[in-house]
C-alpha cells in the first residue's frame, strides 16, 4: 500500500475491487466459450457458432437460460447446505483474484497504483487457505443432495482435494525459498531481470519439478479432466452436481472455470515470472499486463488441451500418483533444494561479510 | 495503544459467532452440521487472529484446521454414513464427568496463562511488527523453542505411524475385492 490512506485511497480500492470482480466474471464467461471452441477444434468439430458472430455470445445465452430456469430442489436435500455449497465453491476463487498481481503500477496524478487487489504479506498462504475452503463447496454439495451418486462424488472430492493440496503446498515451498518471500508482488519482483543477459530469472526454470508437480496438482484441485473423478459422468451420472439445476448448477460451472483461471494465474506468478517480460517505453504499464495474460493464457490452453486428449484416471491411480509418486519426489526435492539454498545463502553472506 | 470501541464491537461480534457456532457443534443432532459449525468456529478464530495482526497464524489456522482437519472429519462422517439419528447413549463410561473436569482444567490453565503473560490489546510495536510475522514466528520456532517444537513433532509422527499400523493390520480370509479396496485407500 503506497500513499496515504485518505478518501482517494478508499475510493481507489473500492474501484479496484469492482473492476476485478467484473473483469474476472467476464473473463470466466469468455473462457467457457474458448474452451468449447478449443475442444471442438481438437475433435474436428465446429463448436458453438450460432449465437452472435462465431458463436461468441453462446455462454451469455446459456447463462441467461440457466438463470431463468426453475431451480429444482429435490425433497431429500439438506436445504441450507444445499444452497450454500455452490457459493462456497465460487467465492474463495474470486477472493484469490484479489492477491494476483496483474501488472506493475500505473502512476495517476502522482499516485502509484499497483495493478493488484492487495498485496498481503502472507500472499501465497492466503491462496492455499482459500483453496482449502473451496473443498467444502464440492464435498457439501455431494452430501447435501441427499442422493447416492453425489455422495460418492463428494467423498471422492474431499479425499482427492486434501491429498493434492498437500502436494501443492510441498510444490510451493521450494519456490518460496528461491524467491525468499510469501508476498505475490515480492515474488514477481524477485523474478525480474535475467541470467547471462537472456535467460529470464523465472523460479520455474530452477524449480522445474515443483512447477510440473504444481501444475498436476492444479488440475486435480480444480477437478478438471483427467482428474474429474468427482463428476465422472460415466460412473456417477453428474457426480456432486447431479441434483443441481438452473442458476445453482451455473455457479458450479462458473466456479470450475474461475478456478482454472486463478490457479493458472498463481502458477504464472509463482513459477513463470508473473508480469515480467520485455517492455517498451511506449505505454509502460501495458506490457506487463500483456505478458501476464499471455502466460496465463498459455497455461489455460494447456488445461484445455489436456482435457481434450487424456482419458480419466481411475480413483486408486489418482491417489497413488499423489501419495506414492508426487509427495516423495517433492519431499526429496525440497530437502535438496533447501540444502542448496542454505549453501548459496552462506556463500553470499561470506561475500557480503568478507 | 488503547482499545477503541470499534475494536471491542468487532471482537464481540466475532466472539459471538465463534461461541454460538461452538455451542451448535455440541448441540447439533446432525454430525455433518456439527462438523460445519466446527469449521465456522475455527474460521472465526482465524478472523480474530487477523484482527490481532497475526495474519500468518490466521492462514495456518485456515489451511490446517478449517481446510484439512474438518474436511477429514467430513470425509469420515460421509464415508461411514453416521449423519442421521446418532445413538445418544454413551459407549465410554464416565465420559461426561471426565470431559467436564478436563474442560475446567483447560479453562483454569488458559486464564492462568493470560493472567501471567497476557497484555490485553495488541501493542503498537506488535502491530508494527505484523508485517514480519512469518520471520518472527520462524525465528522463535527454530531457535528459542526448537526443542519444544521437535518434541511436539515426535508424538505426532508416532501417532500417524500408529494409525497406519492399526489400519493396515492383516485380517484373515480376505476376499479379492476387499484387498483391492485396501490397496486404493
Any overview of this molecule?
The complex is a heterodimer of chains A (354) and B (185). With 354 residues, chain A is mainly α. Chain A has one domain. Helix content of chain A is 67%, strand content 3%. Chain A has a two-stranded antiparallel sheet. In chain A, strands 3-4 form a two-stranded antiparallel sheet. The model of chain A has no long low-confidence stretch (mean pLDDT 83). With 185 residues, chain B is mainly α. Chain B folds into 2 domains: 1-84 and 114-122, NADH-ubiquinone/plastoquinone oxidoreductase chain 6, subunit NuoJ (Four Helix Bundle (Hemerythrin (Met), subunit A)); 132-173. Chain B contains 8 helices and no strands. The model of chain B has no long low-confidence stretch (mean pLDDT 79). Classes of the chains: A mainly alpha (354), B mainly alpha (185). At the A-B interface, helix 4, helix 5 and helix 12 of A face helix 2, helix 3 and helix 8 of B.
What shape does the CA trace of chain B take? globular
CATH topology of the largest domain in chain B: Four Helix Bundle (Hemerythrin (Met), subunit A)
Count of β-strands of chain B: 0
Largest sheet of chain B: none
CATH architecture of the largest domain in chain B: Up-down Bundle
CATH top-level class of the largest domain in chain B: Mainly Alpha
Total number of helices of chain B: 8
- Ends apart, CA distance between termini of chain B: 53 Å
- Chain pair with largest interface: A-B, 32 and 30 residues
Domain unit count of chain B: 2
Percent of residues in helices of chain B comes to: over 70%
Compact overview of the structure:
Chain A has 354 residues and is mainly α.
Amino acid at each position: 500500500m503506497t500513499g496515504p490512506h485518505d478518501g482517494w485511497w478508499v475510493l481507489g480500492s473500492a474501484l479496484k475491487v469492482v473492476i476485478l470482480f467484473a473483469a474476472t466474471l467476464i473473463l470466466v464467461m469468455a473462457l467457457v466459450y474458448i474452451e468449447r471452441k478449443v475442444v471442438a477444434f481438437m475433435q474436428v468439430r465446429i463448436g458453438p457458432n450460432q449465437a452472435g458472430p462465431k458463436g461468441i455470445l453462446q455462454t451469455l445465452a446459456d447463462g441467461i437460460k440457466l438463470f431463468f430456469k426453475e431451480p429444482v430442489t429435490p425433497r431429500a436435500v439438506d436445504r441450507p447446505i444445499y444452497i450454500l455449497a455452490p457459493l462456497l465453491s465460487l467465492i474463495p476463487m474470486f477472493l484469490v483474484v484479489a492477491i494476483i498481481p496483474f501488472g506493475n503500477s500505473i502512476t495517476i496524478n502522482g499516485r502509484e497504483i499497483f495493478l493488484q487487489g492487495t498485496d498481503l504479506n502472507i500472499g501465497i498462504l492466503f491462496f492455499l487457505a482459500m483453496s482449502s475452503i473451496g473443498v467444502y463447496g464440492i464435498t457439501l454439495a455431494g452430501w447435501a443432495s441427499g442422493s447416492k451418486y453425489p455422495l460418492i462424488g463428494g467423498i471422492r472430492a474431499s479425499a482427492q482435494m486434501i491429498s493434492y493440496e498437500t502436494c501443492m503446498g510441498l510444490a510451493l515451498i521450494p519456490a518460496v525459498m528461491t524467491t525468499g518471500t510469501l508476498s505475490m508482488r515480492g515474488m514477481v519482483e524477485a523474478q525480474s531481470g535475467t541470467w547471462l543477459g537472456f535467460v529470464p530469472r523465472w523460479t520455474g526454470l530452477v524449480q522445474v519439478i515443483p512447477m510440473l508437480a504444481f501444475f498436476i496438482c492444479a488440475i486435480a484441485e480444480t477437478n478438471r479432466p483427467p482428474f474429474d473423478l468427482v463428476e465422472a459422468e460415466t460412473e456417477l451420472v453428474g457426480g456432486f452436481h447431479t441434483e443441481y439445476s438452473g442458476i445453482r448448477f451455473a455457479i458450479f460451472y462458473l466456479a470450475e472455470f474461475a478456478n482454472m483461471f486463478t490457479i493458472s494465474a498463481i502458477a504464472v506468478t509463482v513459477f513463470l515470472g508473473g508480469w515480467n517480460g520485455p517492455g517498451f517505453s511506449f505505454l509502460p504499464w501495458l506490457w506487463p499486463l500483456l505478458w501476464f495474460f499471455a502466460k496465463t493464457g498459455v497455461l489455460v490452453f494447456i488445461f484445455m488441451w489436456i482435457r481434450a486428449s487424456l482419458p480419466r484416471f481411475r480413483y486408486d491411480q489418482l491417489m497413488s500418483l499423489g501419495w506414492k509418486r508426487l509427495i516423495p519426489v517433492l519431499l526429496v526435492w525440497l530437502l535438496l533444494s533447501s540444502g542448496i539454498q542454505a549453501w548459496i545463502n552462506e556463500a553470499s553472506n561470506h561475500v557480503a561479510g568478507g | 495503544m488503547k482499545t477503541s470501541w470499534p475494536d471491542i464491537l468487532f471482537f464481540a461480534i466475532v466472539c459471538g459467532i465463534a461461541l454460538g457456532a461452538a455451542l451448535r457443534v455440541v448441540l447439533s443432532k446432525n454430525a455433518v452440521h456439527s462438523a460445519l459449525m466446527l469449521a465456522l468456529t475455527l474460521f472465526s478464530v482465524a478472523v480474530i487472529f487477523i484482527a490481532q495482526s497475526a495474519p500468518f497464524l490466521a492462514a495456518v489456522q485456515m489451511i490446517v484446521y478449517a481446510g484439512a482437519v474438518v474436511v477429514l472429519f467430513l470425509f469420515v462422517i460421509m464415508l461411514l454414513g453416521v449423519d442421521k439419528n446418532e445413538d445418544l447413549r454413551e459407549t465410554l463410561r464416565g465420559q461426561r464427568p471426565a470431559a467436564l473436569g478436563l474442560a475446567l482444567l483447560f479453562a483454569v490453565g488458559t486464564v492462568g496463562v493470560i493472567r501471567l503473560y497476557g497484555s490485553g490489546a495488541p501493542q503498537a510495536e506488535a502491530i508494527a511488527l505484523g508485517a514480519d510475522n512469518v520471520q518472527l514466528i520462524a525465528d522463535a520456532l527454530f531457535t528459542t523453542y526448537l526443542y519444544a517444537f521437535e518434541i511436539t513433532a515426535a508424538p505426532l509422527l508416532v501417532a500417524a505411524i500408529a494409525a497406519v499400523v492399526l489400519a493396515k493390520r492383516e485380517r484373515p480370509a480376505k476376499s479379492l475385492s476387499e484387498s483391492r479396496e485396501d490397496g486404493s485407500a
